Amino acid sequence: MTPGQIVFSRQGRDSGRAMIVIAVNCDGEYVYLVDGKLRLLEKPKKKKAKHIQITKSIVDLVPPCGRALQDADIRKHLAKFDSMV
After folding, report:
1. Could you tell me the CA-to-CA distances from 65 to 27, 36, 60, 62 in Å, in that order?
2. Model confidence over 7-52: pLDDT tens digits?
């Protein structure tokens, strides 16, 4: 898994929700996920890697014009995956 990869939660109350990987723990056991709605960039969800379904889709986490990444950017990337659930 790499930062920017789109995944789906398989376990927990957020099951079925599309999220983006923001960071991966050094041993790869845990990942930090955001969705821009319930899990914001200021407080990402720490989740075990075995509880997520990985997709092949990877988004660029660097927004244009050199501004900081915002939750609206995350929601825009995940908009097409919300209709898949």
Report:
1. 33, 20, 13, 9
2. 999 988 889 899 999 999 988 899 999 999 999 999 999 999 999 9
Closest C-alpha to 30, from 52, 8, 56: 52
Contact 30, 47 (CB under 8 A): yes
Q: Global pTM?
A: 0.88
Q: 3-state DSSP: the chain helix, strand, coil percent, rounded to 5?
A: 20, 35, 45
H-run or E-run covering 19: strand 18-24
